[in-house]
Amino acid sequence: EVFQEISGLLKKEKLLAHILGIQRVIIVPGNLEDDSNVKQLIGKEAVSFLIEHAKNDDFVAITGGSTVAALADFLAPVKSVSSLTFIAARGSIGDELELQANTLVSQFASKSHANSKTLYLPEHLSQTAYETMKKEPVIKEIIDLYEEVHFVIHGIGNAKEMAVRRHTDNEIIAILRDKQAVGEAFGYYFDINGEIIYQINSIGIQLEQVKNSRNIIAVAGGANKAKAIRAYFNIAAKHTVLITDEGAANAILEG
Ligand code: G3H
């Protein structure tokens, strides 16, 4: 029975990869909306992938969110990860202090005895302030690093849920609603076709820089993210590896 279950998941992984147009999908059993342990399983798979594919001294950009946070428990000072540098993929957003990239970067680095680069910057900067900040040496250093990251690990969010979680202004909520945003990843909100509708005005890694990264891991599960995941893979790099759960996978395959 266990074997049947495994081979069922393997088939689903292949099918889903085909539908999304990518080479590799990893599906963990369960639906994280019903069982919080499922998120941990996603985190565990992501760490295994990182250990297997990271090269010495790689720069690893990570975003925030609870799914990326789930990697933390599985990071340990093994040789292949202690030479890494974890980099915050973006400045602070919303009130998500515990789940923001900076917090996770420090946590990941301390768990794996690796290096870290954080980016403490307020959101909602005026255009002038934004231009000035970008020239500040400590900030410029990180922005320049985004050009040469080797690994990106990021979440994918349900647009509505993310907008609420981040206490987004009504004006922007209206744009997201009118243009039918379904998903969000590293500050970009997009519709079902992957058209970018809105980008959060905060300093962070850009889509092109993510795509240029040698390895990209997207971690997202739960049936309510099915549309967001589906949409994101219209713009994602083909070498992105999706680590998801059965909840999202079934919803995409059935939808
Ligand atoms: O950008 C997407 C969000 O960071 C996803 O957050 O993993 O807590 O759902 P989550």
Strand composition percent: 15-25%
Largest sheet: 7 strands, parallel
Please state the CA-atom Rg, rounded to the nearest Å.
Answer: 18 Å
Category from helices, strands and their pairing: alpha/beta
Main sheet: which strands, in order across? Answer: 1-11-10-5-2-3-4
Strand tally is 11
Instruction: Provide mean pLDDT, rounded.
Output: 93
Word description of this protein:
This protein is α/β, with parallel strands linked by helices. Helices cover 44% and strands 18% of the residues. It has a 7-stranded parallel β-sheet, sandwiched between helices. A 4-stranded antiparallel β-sheet has the order 6-7-8-9, with helices on both faces. Strand 10 (215-219), helix 11 (226-232) and strand 11 form a beta-alpha-beta unit. The longest helix is centred in the first third of the chain and has 19 residues, at 2-20. It is globular, with a radius of gyration of 18 Å. The two termini are 27 Å apart. Glyceraldehyde-3-phosphate binds at residues 63-67, 155-157, 162, 184-185.
Secondary structure layout plus pairing:
Layout: H1 2-20, E1 24-28, H2 37-53, E2 59-62, H3 66-69, H4 79-82, E3 85-88, H5 101-112, E4 115-117, H6 127-135, H7 137-146, E5 151-155, E6 157-158, H8 159-165, H9 170-178, E7 181-185, E8 188-191, E9 196-199, H10 207-211, E10 215-219, H11 226-232, E11 240-245, H12 246-254
Parallel strand pairs: 1-11, 2-3, 2-5, 3-4, 5-10, 10-11
Antiparallel strand pairs: 6-7, 7-8, 8-9
Helix pairs in contact: 1-12, 11-12
The chain binds glyceraldehyde-3-phosphate (G3H).
Glyceraldehyde-3-phosphate binds at residues 63-67, 155-157, 162, 184-185.
